[in-house]
Design a protein that fits this description.
The chain has about 400 residues and is mainly beta. It is built from three helices and 29 strands. The protein is globular. It starts with a helix and ends with a strand. The relative contact order is 0.14. The structure holds alpha-D-galactopyranose (GLA). Alpha-D-galactopyranose binds near residues 297, 334 and 360.
Protein backbone atom coordinates (compact mmCIF):
# COMPACT_ATOMS: atom_id res chain seq x y z
CA UNK A 1 0.00 0.00 0.00
CA UNK A 2 2.77 2.38 1.13
CA UNK A 3 4.91 1.60 -1.88
CA UNK A 4 1.89 2.22 -4.18
CA UNK A 5 1.40 5.58 -2.49
CA UNK A 6 5.05 6.51 -2.92
CA UNK A 7 4.94 5.52 -6.60
CA UNK A 8 1.90 7.79 -6.97
CA UNK A 9 3.74 10.64 -5.22
CA UNK A 10 6.82 10.21 -7.42
CA UNK A 11 4.68 10.23 -10.57
CA UNK A 12 2.98 13.46 -9.43
CA UNK A 13 6.38 14.98 -8.55
CA UNK A 14 7.76 14.02 -11.98
CA UNK A 15 4.81 15.68 -13.65
CA UNK A 16 5.20 18.80 -11.52
CA UNK A 17 8.88 19.11 -12.57
CA UNK A 18 7.98 18.52 -16.19
CA UNK A 19 5.58 21.49 -16.04
CA UNK A 20 8.29 23.60 -14.35
CA UNK A 21 10.82 22.72 -17.07
CA UNK A 22 8.24 23.41 -19.76
CA UNK A 23 7.38 26.81 -18.27
CA UNK A 24 11.00 27.85 -17.90
CA UNK A 25 11.80 26.71 -21.44
CA UNK A 26 8.84 28.81 -22.61
CA UNK A 27 10.29 31.85 -20.87
CA UNK A 28 13.70 31.20 -22.38
CA UNK A 29 12.12 30.81 -25.80
CA UNK A 30 10.46 34.19 -25.42
CA UNK A 31 13.73 35.83 -24.37
CA UNK A 32 15.50 34.37 -27.36
CA UNK A 33 12.72 35.71 -29.56
CA UNK A 34 13.38 39.30 -28.53
CA UNK A 35 16.29 39.34 -30.96
CA UNK A 36 14.21 38.06 -33.79
CA UNK A 37 13.47 41.38 -35.32
CA UNK A 38 16.93 41.40 -36.83
CA UNK A 39 17.45 37.66 -37.09
CA UNK A 40 16.61 36.39 -40.54
CA UNK A 41 16.64 39.85 -42.21
CA UNK A 42 19.01 38.64 -44.89
CA UNK A 43 17.06 35.41 -45.42
CA UNK A 44 14.13 34.67 -47.73
CA UNK A 45 11.96 34.06 -44.64
CA UNK A 46 11.57 36.47 -41.74
CA UNK A 47 9.86 36.43 -38.37
CA UNK A 48 8.95 39.59 -36.51
CA UNK A 49 7.17 40.01 -33.22
CA UNK A 50 5.33 42.72 -31.34
CA UNK A 51 3.12 43.09 -28.31
CA UNK A 52 -0.50 42.62 -29.33
CA UNK A 53 -2.19 43.63 -26.08
CA UNK A 54 -3.24 42.43 -22.65
CA UNK A 55 -6.25 40.21 -21.97
CA UNK A 56 -8.97 41.33 -19.56
CA UNK A 57 -7.39 39.09 -16.92
CA UNK A 58 -3.97 40.72 -17.38
CA UNK A 59 -2.13 38.23 -19.61
CA UNK A 60 0.23 39.65 -22.22
CA UNK A 61 -0.43 38.59 -25.81
CA UNK A 62 2.18 38.67 -28.58
CA UNK A 63 1.83 38.74 -32.33
CA UNK A 64 4.28 36.98 -34.64
CA UNK A 65 4.58 37.77 -38.34
CA UNK A 66 5.99 35.06 -40.60
CA UNK A 67 6.88 36.38 -44.06
CA UNK A 68 8.39 34.89 -47.16
CA UNK A 69 9.26 36.68 -50.33
CA UNK A 70 7.16 34.31 -52.39
CA UNK A 71 4.25 36.47 -51.31
CA UNK A 72 2.87 35.05 -48.06
CA UNK A 73 2.62 36.95 -44.83
CA UNK A 74 0.85 35.43 -41.83
CA UNK A 75 0.12 37.02 -38.46
CA UNK A 76 -0.40 34.72 -35.48
CA UNK A 77 -1.27 35.83 -31.95
CA UNK A 78 -0.64 33.86 -28.78
CA UNK A 79 -4.29 34.32 -27.71
CA UNK A 80 -5.88 31.12 -28.98
CA UNK A 81 -2.86 30.60 -31.28
CA UNK A 82 -5.01 32.44 -33.79
CA UNK A 83 -4.13 33.33 -37.36
CA UNK A 84 -5.36 36.93 -37.53
CA UNK A 85 -4.32 37.70 -41.10
CA UNK A 86 -2.88 35.66 -43.97
CA UNK A 87 -1.89 37.64 -47.03
CA UNK A 88 -1.28 36.09 -50.42
CA UNK A 89 -0.95 37.58 -53.91
CA UNK A 90 -3.59 37.35 -56.64
CA UNK A 91 -2.88 36.89 -60.36
CA UNK A 92 -2.14 40.64 -60.70
CA UNK A 93 0.40 40.40 -57.89
CA UNK A 94 -1.79 42.26 -55.36
CA UNK A 95 -1.23 41.19 -51.77
CA UNK A 96 -4.48 40.83 -49.76
CA UNK A 97 -5.60 39.26 -46.53
CA UNK A 98 -7.66 36.12 -47.22
CA UNK A 99 -8.75 35.07 -43.70
CA UNK A 100 -11.54 36.53 -41.57
CA UNK A 101 -10.33 38.24 -38.43
CA UNK A 102 -10.62 41.25 -36.15
CA UNK A 103 -8.73 44.45 -35.55
CA UNK A 104 -7.78 43.95 -31.91
CA UNK A 105 -7.58 41.62 -28.93
CA UNK A 106 -10.68 43.09 -27.31
CA UNK A 107 -12.75 41.87 -30.25
CA UNK A 108 -11.13 38.40 -30.18
CA UNK A 109 -11.98 38.08 -26.48
CA UNK A 110 -15.66 38.74 -27.17
CA UNK A 111 -17.84 35.88 -28.30
CA UNK A 112 -16.96 34.90 -31.88
CA UNK A 113 -17.08 31.77 -34.01
CA UNK A 114 -13.44 30.64 -33.53
CA UNK A 115 -11.96 33.06 -36.09
CA UNK A 116 -8.46 31.77 -36.97
CA UNK A 117 -8.26 29.74 -33.77
CA UNK A 118 -6.56 26.59 -32.63
CA UNK A 119 -9.37 24.33 -31.45
CA UNK A 120 -9.10 21.75 -28.65
CA UNK A 121 -9.17 19.55 -26.77
CA UNK A 122 -11.85 18.20 -29.01
CA UNK A 123 -12.61 19.94 -32.29
CA UNK A 124 -16.27 19.49 -33.35
CA UNK A 125 -19.14 18.09 -31.29
CA UNK A 126 -19.37 15.51 -28.51
CA UNK A 127 -22.99 14.39 -28.07
CA UNK A 128 -24.73 15.48 -24.87
CA UNK A 129 -21.37 16.69 -23.55
CA UNK A 130 -20.31 13.33 -22.17
CA UNK A 131 -18.37 10.18 -22.96
CA UNK A 132 -17.23 7.01 -21.33
CA UNK A 133 -13.60 5.99 -21.15
CA UNK A 134 -12.49 2.74 -19.46
CA UNK A 135 -15.72 2.57 -17.48
CA UNK A 136 -15.61 6.17 -16.21
CA UNK A 137 -18.15 8.69 -17.43
CA UNK A 138 -16.76 12.17 -18.07
CA UNK A 139 -19.14 15.14 -18.10
CA UNK A 140 -18.13 18.09 -20.23
CA UNK A 141 -19.37 21.65 -20.51
CA UNK A 142 -22.40 21.95 -22.83
CA UNK A 143 -21.82 24.98 -25.02
CA UNK A 144 -23.80 24.04 -28.14
CA UNK A 145 -27.32 23.17 -27.09
CA UNK A 146 -27.05 19.77 -25.39
CA UNK A 147 -23.61 19.16 -26.88
CA UNK A 148 -19.98 20.05 -26.28
CA UNK A 149 -18.45 21.98 -29.20
CA UNK A 150 -14.78 22.75 -29.89
CA UNK A 151 -13.48 21.96 -26.40
CA UNK A 152 -16.14 23.66 -24.28
CA UNK A 153 -16.66 27.06 -22.73
CA UNK A 154 -12.98 27.96 -22.46
CA UNK A 155 -11.31 25.88 -25.13
CA UNK A 156 -7.81 26.23 -26.59
CA UNK A 157 -9.10 29.15 -28.69
CA UNK A 158 -9.51 31.30 -25.55
CA UNK A 159 -6.26 30.64 -23.69
CA UNK A 160 -2.90 32.40 -24.07
CA UNK A 161 -0.35 30.00 -25.53
CA UNK A 162 3.32 30.04 -24.46
CA UNK A 163 6.02 30.76 -27.01
CA UNK A 164 8.40 27.79 -27.07
CA UNK A 165 10.65 28.72 -29.94
CA UNK A 166 11.02 30.43 -33.28
CA UNK A 167 13.32 29.10 -36.00
CA UNK A 168 14.36 30.69 -39.29
CA UNK A 169 16.31 29.07 -42.12
CA UNK A 170 16.65 29.74 -45.84
CA UNK A 171 13.60 27.62 -46.59
CA UNK A 172 11.28 28.01 -43.59
CA UNK A 173 10.29 30.07 -40.58
CA UNK A 174 8.45 28.48 -37.67
CA UNK A 175 6.71 29.44 -34.47
CA UNK A 176 6.22 26.75 -31.82
CA UNK A 177 3.51 27.36 -29.22
CA UNK A 178 2.61 25.30 -26.17
CA UNK A 179 -0.28 25.01 -23.76
CA UNK A 180 -0.68 22.80 -20.71
CA UNK A 181 -4.32 21.88 -20.21
CA UNK A 182 -4.88 20.75 -16.62
CA UNK A 183 -6.47 17.48 -15.58
CA UNK A 184 -10.28 17.86 -15.78
CA UNK A 185 -10.12 21.23 -17.57
CA UNK A 186 -13.54 21.59 -19.27
CA UNK A 187 -14.19 18.05 -17.94
CA UNK A 188 -11.46 16.22 -19.91
CA UNK A 189 -9.20 13.83 -17.97
CA UNK A 190 -5.40 14.11 -17.83
CA UNK A 191 -2.85 16.90 -17.85
CA UNK A 192 -2.41 17.42 -21.59
CA UNK A 193 0.85 19.03 -22.77
CA UNK A 194 0.18 20.42 -26.23
CA UNK A 195 2.53 21.89 -28.83
CA UNK A 196 1.45 23.50 -32.08
CA UNK A 197 4.10 24.55 -34.61
CA UNK A 198 3.23 26.85 -37.49
CA UNK A 199 5.83 26.67 -40.28
CA UNK A 200 5.82 28.98 -43.29
CA UNK A 201 7.83 27.45 -46.12
CA UNK A 202 9.53 29.05 -49.11
CA UNK A 203 7.12 27.15 -51.43
CA UNK A 204 4.17 29.21 -50.08
CA UNK A 205 2.84 26.50 -47.82
CA UNK A 206 1.90 26.81 -44.16
CA UNK A 207 2.32 23.63 -42.09
CA UNK A 208 0.53 23.13 -38.79
CA UNK A 209 2.03 20.40 -36.62
CA UNK A 210 0.06 19.36 -33.53
CA UNK A 211 1.66 17.28 -30.77
CA UNK A 212 0.30 16.24 -27.36
CA UNK A 213 1.00 13.90 -24.46
CA UNK A 214 -1.07 13.06 -21.40
CA UNK A 215 -0.59 11.56 -17.92
CA UNK A 216 -4.08 9.92 -17.91
CA UNK A 217 -5.99 8.24 -20.71
CA UNK A 218 -7.97 10.94 -22.51
CA UNK A 219 -9.41 11.98 -25.89
CA UNK A 220 -7.83 14.54 -28.28
CA UNK A 221 -8.88 16.03 -31.60
CA UNK A 222 -7.10 19.29 -32.48
CA UNK A 223 -7.79 21.48 -35.49
CA UNK A 224 -7.42 24.97 -36.98
CA UNK A 225 -10.49 27.12 -37.55
CA UNK A 226 -9.43 29.76 -40.11
CA UNK A 227 -12.18 31.11 -42.35
CA UNK A 228 -10.89 31.63 -45.89
CA UNK A 229 -12.23 33.96 -48.56
CA UNK A 230 -9.72 33.76 -51.39
CA UNK A 231 -11.17 36.84 -53.10
CA UNK A 232 -9.74 38.95 -50.25
CA UNK A 233 -13.02 40.88 -50.34
CA UNK A 234 -15.04 39.90 -47.28
CA UNK A 235 -18.17 41.64 -48.51
CA UNK A 236 -18.37 38.85 -51.11
CA UNK A 237 -19.87 35.42 -50.43
CA UNK A 238 -17.60 32.40 -50.88
CA UNK A 239 -20.19 30.53 -52.98
CA UNK A 240 -18.29 31.60 -56.13
CA UNK A 241 -15.26 29.52 -55.06
CA UNK A 242 -14.66 26.12 -56.58
CA UNK A 243 -13.87 23.29 -54.17
CA UNK A 244 -12.60 19.74 -54.52
CA UNK A 245 -12.65 17.20 -51.65
CA UNK A 246 -11.25 13.69 -52.07
CA UNK A 247 -14.01 11.84 -50.26
CA UNK A 248 -16.50 9.19 -51.36
CA UNK A 249 -18.49 9.56 -48.15
CA UNK A 250 -19.44 12.08 -45.49
CA UNK A 251 -20.55 11.72 -41.88
CA UNK A 252 -24.35 11.87 -41.79
CA UNK A 253 -25.73 14.03 -38.97
CA UNK A 254 -28.96 14.56 -37.03
CA UNK A 255 -30.70 17.86 -36.28
CA UNK A 256 -28.09 18.85 -33.67
CA UNK A 257 -25.27 18.05 -36.15
CA UNK A 258 -24.31 14.92 -34.19
CA UNK A 259 -23.37 11.86 -36.31
CA UNK A 260 -26.10 9.29 -36.76
CA UNK A 261 -23.32 6.68 -36.96
CA UNK A 262 -23.86 6.24 -40.72
CA UNK A 263 -21.43 7.25 -43.42
CA UNK A 264 -23.41 8.49 -46.43
CA UNK A 265 -22.20 8.15 -50.01
CA UNK A 266 -21.60 11.48 -51.78
CA UNK A 267 -22.66 9.94 -55.11
CA UNK A 268 -25.50 11.91 -56.69
CA UNK A 269 -25.68 14.37 -53.74
CA UNK A 270 -24.60 18.02 -53.27
CA UNK A 271 -21.77 16.57 -51.13
CA UNK A 272 -19.95 15.18 -54.16
CA UNK A 273 -16.84 17.36 -54.50
CA UNK A 274 -14.68 14.63 -56.05
CA UNK A 275 -14.49 16.78 -59.19
CA UNK A 276 -13.85 20.47 -58.57
CA UNK A 277 -17.17 22.40 -58.58
CA UNK A 278 -18.67 25.66 -57.37
CA UNK A 279 -19.76 25.80 -53.71
CA UNK A 280 -22.92 27.41 -55.06
CA UNK A 281 -23.68 24.17 -56.84
CA UNK A 282 -25.66 22.39 -54.11
CA UNK A 283 -25.29 24.66 -51.07
CA UNK A 284 -29.01 25.48 -51.07
CA UNK A 285 -30.19 22.19 -52.56
CA UNK A 286 -33.41 20.46 -51.53
CA UNK A 287 -31.54 17.94 -49.45
CA UNK A 288 -32.21 16.86 -45.88
CA UNK A 289 -28.54 17.00 -44.80
CA UNK A 290 -28.00 20.43 -46.40
CA UNK A 291 -31.06 21.72 -44.53
CA UNK A 292 -29.74 20.42 -41.20
CA UNK A 293 -26.43 22.25 -41.71
CA UNK A 294 -27.95 25.40 -43.22
CA UNK A 295 -25.50 24.70 -46.05
CA UNK A 296 -22.29 22.69 -45.81
CA UNK A 297 -21.30 21.99 -42.21
CA UNK A 298 -20.28 18.36 -42.37
CA UNK A 299 -17.27 16.13 -41.91
CA UNK A 300 -16.08 14.47 -45.11
CA UNK A 301 -14.62 10.96 -44.79
CA UNK A 302 -11.35 11.56 -46.60
CA UNK A 303 -10.20 8.87 -49.02
CA UNK A 304 -6.99 6.86 -48.60
CA UNK A 305 -6.43 7.27 -44.85
CA UNK A 306 -3.87 4.45 -45.06
CA UNK A 307 -1.61 6.78 -47.09
CA UNK A 308 -1.29 9.11 -44.09
CA UNK A 309 -0.26 12.64 -45.07
CA UNK A 310 -1.81 13.24 -48.51
CA UNK A 311 -3.55 15.87 -50.64
CA UNK A 312 -7.23 15.94 -49.61
CA UNK A 313 -8.83 19.20 -50.78
CA UNK A 314 -8.51 22.24 -53.04
CA UNK A 315 -10.19 25.63 -53.34
CA UNK A 316 -10.01 28.04 -56.27
CA UNK A 317 -11.29 31.58 -56.64
CA UNK A 318 -11.31 32.20 -60.37
CA UNK A 319 -11.65 36.00 -60.22
CA UNK A 320 -8.45 36.51 -58.22
CA UNK A 321 -6.73 33.33 -59.37
CA UNK A 322 -5.97 32.37 -55.77
CA UNK A 323 -5.76 28.61 -55.27
CA UNK A 324 -5.19 26.57 -52.14
CA UNK A 325 -4.52 22.92 -51.48
CA UNK A 326 -4.94 21.04 -48.20
CA UNK A 327 -2.73 18.13 -47.18
CA UNK A 328 -3.26 16.15 -43.99
CA UNK A 329 -2.81 12.79 -42.27
CA UNK A 330 -6.26 13.08 -40.65
CA UNK A 331 -9.24 10.82 -41.55
CA UNK A 332 -11.78 13.66 -41.80
CA UNK A 333 -12.32 17.29 -42.75
CA UNK A 334 -15.20 19.52 -41.63
CA UNK A 335 -16.08 21.76 -44.57
CA UNK A 336 -18.04 24.61 -43.03
CA UNK A 337 -19.39 27.41 -45.24
CA UNK A 338 -19.89 30.08 -42.55
CA UNK A 339 -23.66 29.50 -42.42
CA UNK A 340 -23.91 30.91 -38.88
CA UNK A 341 -22.18 34.22 -39.68
CA UNK A 342 -24.99 36.73 -39.40
CA UNK A 343 -23.70 40.22 -40.10
CA UNK A 344 -23.09 41.17 -36.47
CA UNK A 345 -19.27 40.94 -36.33
CA UNK A 346 -17.17 43.84 -37.62
CA UNK A 347 -14.53 43.35 -40.32
CA UNK A 348 -11.34 45.43 -39.79
CA UNK A 349 -11.53 47.02 -43.23
CA UNK A 350 -15.12 48.15 -42.61
CA UNK A 351 -18.41 46.36 -42.99
CA UNK A 352 -19.51 43.20 -41.24
CA UNK A 353 -19.07 39.46 -41.73
CA UNK A 354 -22.22 38.16 -43.38
CA UNK A 355 -23.49 34.63 -43.89
CA UNK A 356 -21.05 32.65 -46.05
CA UNK A 357 -18.34 35.31 -46.13
CA UNK A 358 -15.77 32.62 -45.28
CA UNK A 359 -15.32 28.85 -45.36
CA UNK A 360 -13.29 26.52 -43.11
CA UNK A 361 -11.35 23.38 -43.94
CA UNK A 362 -11.05 21.83 -40.45
CA UNK A 363 -8.93 18.69 -40.75
CA UNK A 364 -9.76 16.33 -37.88
CA UNK A 365 -11.17 13.05 -36.61
CA UNK A 366 -14.89 12.52 -37.07
CA UNK A 367 -17.28 14.36 -34.72
CA UNK A 368 -18.41 12.58 -31.56
CA UNK A 369 -15.78 9.82 -32.00
CA UNK A 370 -15.57 9.22 -28.20
CA UNK A 371 -19.19 7.96 -28.37
CA UNK A 372 -18.98 6.17 -31.73
CA UNK A 373 -17.32 2.76 -31.40
CA UNK A 374 -17.12 2.33 -35.19
CA UNK A 375 -15.15 5.54 -35.79
CA UNK A 376 -11.33 5.61 -35.68
CA UNK A 377 -10.16 6.09 -32.10
CA UNK A 378 -9.31 9.49 -30.60
CA UNK A 379 -8.03 7.99 -27.34
CA UNK A 380 -4.58 9.10 -26.17
CA UNK A 381 -2.80 7.07 -23.49
CA UNK A 382 0.09 8.01 -21.19
CA UNK A 383 3.37 7.20 -22.97
CA UNK A 384 1.89 7.78 -26.44
CA UNK A 385 2.28 10.98 -28.47
CA UNK A 386 -0.54 12.51 -30.48
CA UNK A 387 1.10 13.92 -33.60
CA UNK A 388 -0.63 15.17 -36.72
CA UNK A 389 0.18 17.54 -39.55
CA UNK A 390 -1.92 19.67 -41.90
CA UNK A 391 -0.66 21.96 -44.67
CA UNK A 392 -2.39 24.83 -46.49
CA UNK A 393 -0.50 25.46 -49.73
CA UNK A 394 -1.16 28.63 -51.74
CA UNK A 395 -0.64 29.35 -55.43
CA UNK A 396 -2.25 31.12 -58.41
CA UNK A 397 -4.09 29.49 -61.31
C1 LIG B 1 -17.74 24.47 -36.73
C2 LIG B 1 -19.06 23.83 -36.62
C3 LIG B 1 -20.12 24.78 -37.00
C4 LIG B 1 -20.02 26.04 -36.17
C5 LIG B 1 -18.65 26.63 -36.31
C6 LIG B 1 -18.49 27.82 -35.40
O1 LIG B 1 -17.26 24.48 -37.97
O2 LIG B 1 -19.17 22.66 -37.38
O3 LIG B 1 -21.38 24.19 -36.84
O4 LIG B 1 -20.27 25.74 -34.83
O5 LIG B 1 -17.68 25.69 -36.03
O6 LIG B 1 -19.51 28.73 -35.53
Amino acid sequence: MNSMRSIEISISAMFFFLILILNSSCKEGTKKDENFETKGMEKPIRIEQRNYGTTTNGEKVKQFTLKNYGGIEVNIITYGGRITTLKTVDKEGTLKNIVLGFENLEQYEKSNPYFGALVGRYGNRIAKGKFNLNGTEYILAKNNGENNLHGGIKGFDKVVWNVEDTVVSNTMGSLKLSYVSKDMEEGFPGNLITFVTYTLNADNSLDILYEATTDKTTVVNLTQHSYFNLSGDFSQSIVDHKVEISADEFVEVDSSLIPTGEMASVEGTPFDFREIKLIDDGIDAENEQIKLGGGFDHCWVLNNPEKGYRSVAKAHHIGSGRFMEVLTDQPGMQFYTGNFLNGTLPAPIGGVYSKRSGFCFETQHYPDSPNQPNFPTVTLRPGDTYSTKTTFKFSIK
